[in-house]
Amino acid sequence: MTIDPEIDVFLQQLRADWAEHPPFDSLTYPERRAVAENVRARWNQGGPVMARTAERRFDPGAGELRIRVHLPEDVPELAPVLVYLHGGGFTLFSIDTHDRLMREYADQGRFAVVGVDYPLAPEHKYPIALDRIEALMLWLKAHGTKLGLDPTRMALGGDSAGANMSFAIVQRLRARGEGRLVRAILSNYGGYDSAISDEAEAQFGGDASIMSRAEAYEYYANYLNGEAEVGDPQVYPVKADLTGFPPVLLVVAERDILAEQAAPMEQRLREAGVAAQRRVYSGAVHSFLEAMSVSAVARAAIADGAIFVKDKLSKEHP
User: Fold this and answer.
1) 3-state class of 286 per DSSP?
2) Max Cα separation, the chain?
3) By CB neighbour count within 10 A (0-12 exposed, 13-18 middle, 19+ buried), where does 148 fall?
4) pLDDT in tens, the chain (318 residues)
């Protein structure tokens, strides 16, 4: 397996931009976030222009959140909506680093996208972010029409840590009797289990990779309160009861240390009777969707995700 040449352009530019800053492990977490926002800024430039974008900072019931609502042209008065949770290992990034990705989904799928700036670890450990996202989903059910959103046609998704949390939120909503509130999950290169194999680290990890095993484990350590939560199905969804889950698209980067977790996750979903699809993108690495401005593979994966969500949010879909 080789890295796609266009993805490699993305990687080389990231490395050059990171090199302009102090070593990551010498920085505090707020400093790391500032550097990460700076390094990712160039990949947010350009992209579709929305008919309307609204931003709001409020408390939906469990603590304050900042959300951003993107509405593209040619959507109904009450638009179907994808609630999107950005990646960053529960620790980094924001709706600013993922703004173009959200606009691309909105434009290509002709649905609204609500980006969520959930509280980050290690300052805010599990389950603080989940509490607030769950409260937001219930708030959108009750008040989404005020934002031009159709609360009967909502999907949930995210990348990396955001994908992980999407499964936790559906578990929580199901426990409330609100499992049907989410009609689809778009899961972009999520982490689903507590372990990364030696083989995955040898092939796709290491210091030169976009994410090594040590880095992934550090992110989980930031997020969790202790080892007792390693078996928690809201942290590692492959351990969860997935009965009654909505259709799921698992987007997999071929050269990602987390790629090995996608097949077992698909199997667990199918065993639970869930309509699950797993799509592997050749030559892609973790975070490859951010390379959309230079990568045909990234653009294809975004288009596939938009089509999946659009289909599951259509009025004709049960």
Assistant:
1) coil
2) 53
3) middle
4) 699 999 999 999 999 999 999 999 999 999 999 999 999 999 999 999 999 999 999 999 999 999 999 999 999 999 999 999 999 999 999 999 999 999 999 999 999 999 999 999 999 999 999 999 999 999 999 999 999 999 999 999 999 999 999 999 999 999 999 999 999 999 999 999 999 999 999 999 988 789 999 999 999 999 999 988 988 999 999 999 999 999 999 999 999 999 999 999 999 999 999 999 999 999 999 999 999 999 999 999 999 999 999 999 997 766
Q: What is the pLDDT of residue 6?
A: 98
Kindly give the pairing relationship between strand 112-117 and strand 65-71: antiparallel
Beta carbons of 222 and 91 less than 8 angstroms apart: yes
**214 half-sphere exposure, CB direction, 13 A CA radius:** 6
Give yes or no for a contact between 278 and 248, defined as CB atoms under 8 angstroms apart.
no
* Residues 44 and 96: beta-carbon distance below 8 Å: yes
For helices 296-312 and 5-18, the axis angle rounded to 10 degrees is: 100
| Ramachandran assignment for 298, one of left (phi > 0), alpha (psi -120 to 50 degrees), beta (any other) | alpha
Domain residue spans of the chain: 5-312
The CATH number fitting domain 5-312, selected from 3.40.50.1820, 3.40.50.720, 3.40.50.1980, 3.40.50.10190: 3.40.50.1820
Tell me the C-alpha to C-alpha distance, in Å, between residue 275 and each of 4, 62, 222, 262.
Answer: 30, 32, 32, 14
The C-alpha atoms of residue 57 and residue 67 are separated, in whole angstroms, by 6
- Residue 305 dihedral angles phi and psi, to the nearest 5°: -65, -40
Q: How far apart are CA 141 and CA 314, in angstroms?
A: 17
Are the CB atoms for 69 and 114 separated by under 8 Å? yes
Tokens of 186: 């778009």
22: cis peptide before it, omega within 30°? Answer: no
